[in-house]
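Risk register update: the risk of archive-format incompatibility is retired. Evidence:
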Amino acid sequence: MLLPHALRCLQHANVRRFFAGQSISLVGSWMQSVAMGWLVYRLTGRSEMLGLVAFLSQVPVFLFATWAGSLADRVDRRRMVMATQANALVQATLLAALTFTGQVQVWHLLVLSVMLGLTYAFEIPARHALLADIAGADTPNAVALNSTVVNVARVAGPALAGLLVASVGEAWCFALNAVSFVATLSALARMQGLARPAAAPARGWRHLVDGVAYARRTVMVRALLSLSLVASFFALPYQTLMPLIAARQLGGGAALLGRLLACAGAGALAGALLLLVRKDGGGLARRVGWGAALLASGLLGLSLARTPLAAGLSLCLTGFGFITQLAGTMTLLQGLVPRELRGRVMGLFSTLFVGATPFGALAGGWAAAQLGAPLTVRIGACVLALGALAFHLSLPGLRREAPAQHPGLAALP
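Archived output:
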């Protein structure tokens, strides 16, 4: 198949199937995320509850993702992803039924948030490892295209959710999300010719510990994971506080919330497209550091915004910085880590980047109740800015040490 250079990974049939399913499902997932946040705020009006729901939906990643990554190195990754998508379909269906019938209560949302978190815990490391398996040498391009697809959905999903919530209520967002998982399951079922998992010489805890030890002793991997942890805990809780910012700081409602989150998605989409058209990985490590710095700058602007326009522009910068750091980190990790360790390292990445977010969300929700959402976001932005500066200053040393540990790191900036 003759394709533009930016879409070269689509020459693989399984990659085309992967993205056909993802592109539909991700829009539904973003719609549910926005609708869930607004439903929690409508039922309780409390920032602490927003933080708790976010915490419960992501803390299973912290608890189980590293082990799930070890599992993804030992079992059929496609089947593992299919099982997680089936669980997500059931969760969205239950959420829709409860909301349609008017029976939904806060405790329902807490339980279903844990159920969704378990999906994330096992799906993230398996899905990213599967993408690298099916893309082969085109993995960097596939990661960039995945980021682009995610952020197209991040623009469309919140905007559609804002309109639906304002006009017909949250339940329709949950129902459409449930239907969207059918596309993912169908695409995964049609994949063919996948490699069997390599036989692992170690089992159980030893297998898991080997992956952690690899990440700890590989300096570039360790630095990337450390910066991811700082961004996850201190910066990303802004997403949990967005209903408060939209309603109290900017005086808007669900429609404004959807538009603001779409602005963040538009900025992230721009960042993903820049990665997509790159022909090599030169400068990628430096871009990761700049992405963290831009994420911090956007959040600082958001904390100071007093109009929807200023907030929207700040969120565009926030999204651009976020995806530049996230996609750059994932591209580097996918390219540097051997296949037999990929699931474990991506599981560790999930633990630190996604799994630490709920603790940040819980702390952010509590801090917002004491200090207000704007000051909470501002403090997190300042901490991330210091982390980005430390990463930039450490890069010369990483360049000197990295090639000795992994020959593939020699070309990094």
